[in-house]
Amino acid sequence: MVPAVLMLAFFAVPYAAESFNCNNGAISDTVRSTYLDYHNKARRNVAKGIEPNKTGTLNPAKNMYKLVSKAKRF
Q1: How far apart are CA 60 and CA 51, in angstroms?
Q2: Most C-beta atoms within 10 A of its C-beta, which of 14, 47, 55, 57?
Q3: With b meaning 16 or more CB within 10 Å and e meaning fewer, what string describes 4-28?
Q4: Which residues pair with 53 in a beta bridge?
Q5: Are the C-beta atoms of residues 13 and 30 closer than 8 Å to each other?
Q6: Of 21, 46, 44, 18, which is closest to residue 33 (Cα–Cα)?
């Protein structure tokens, strides 16, 4: 399962609705969007209480927000 997810993260070409405005050319906006979408899906599963663990599922979250990414220089 994990290798399939990693392959999707590297080879999937999702539609990036917005630019991340990041000057680092090492990672494209498409890859950033893929990672952000995957991470938000995992967070959504935790928030809903449907993420599996060793004894069943994790308890649902009470206050978990969707992540958004805006690259900024510090």
Answers
A1: 9
A2: 47
A3: eeeeeeeeeeeebeeebebeeeeee
A4: 56
A5: yes
A6: 18
